[in-house]
Amino acid sequence: MADEVKLPADSFEPLDKSKHLDSEKIAAPNLTFMQDAWRRLKKNKGAIIAMILLILFFVMAFGSAFISPHDPNAVHPQFANLPPKWPGIDINGFNGTLMQAGSRVDAYQAAGAASHVHYWLGTDYLGRDMLSRILYGTRISLTVAVVATMVDLLFGVTFGLFSGWKGGWVDNLMQRIIEIIMSIPNLVVVVLLILVLKPGMMSITIAIAFSSWTTMARLIRAQTLELKEQEYVLAAKTLGESSIKIAFKHLLPNLSSIIIIQTMFTIPSAIFFEAFLSYVGIGISSPKASLGTLLNDGQKNFQFLPYQMWYPAIVLSIIMIAFNVFADGLRDAFDPQTKE
Fold it and tell me: How far apart are the first and last CA of the chain?
């Protein structure tokens, strides 16, 4: 038998804590997926600026009943086509003057307006305040887009989730339905709805919701086909979890990034489509205003009074750009493979 090896007594003394190596210590903070996405989003300055602009537009549009300086539908024929006037500003384009017969005249004085009367963005051909109408029109455009997008979100996600989860002939049948709906032009749907319903917010919202949910459904269906083969879903099915519980507990949380990003892309598309319909005269009816109707009214006097078209066009452009920049930022924030 080999000789026993005796260890020295100091071999069992505890190590000095000051010399202890913490090579396995986690240096990064413990963050959830949403917290990490928010951290990545904050590093995207363009997306943060776009988000702030969208918040401002939503607050001003939906708070227009409190911050609008005038009634958006109040008609003042004596103040028709007045240019913008900002109190205390003496800059052409903002001081209430116009070029007439080669000379600049005070349009407010010529209209007999009192000294305290001023319109920040001028008036239209009926003397209605442009600023109030832009705020009111932005609220209508955003309302139509958000309601249509919510229908798209609820119906599109449910349809795509069910189609991808069932698979087989059920999936094939549901995808053929989507292809039939996508083959119908949006304008045809709008015209048919106008024949049944009166032109207005309801018909436009139904038309946008009817045709816009198909993209969401196809994206969710494609992701569901991939996720349902993952190990955690198979484990849940083995443990006897119901399909509804698996969908809400496992599938929807993993589909949240796709849903949020697609929603952010759907809203500006709906806003532009509503503006287009109102511009061609089959959307929001007078005296209600939307960005499309304001553009339609403004282009009639664009040669002589360009501000009537410029201001609603600028608002529509900023909203469209902000939504797209914010959606791009969300896509990068929710993608862990994106380089920071």
Answer: 63
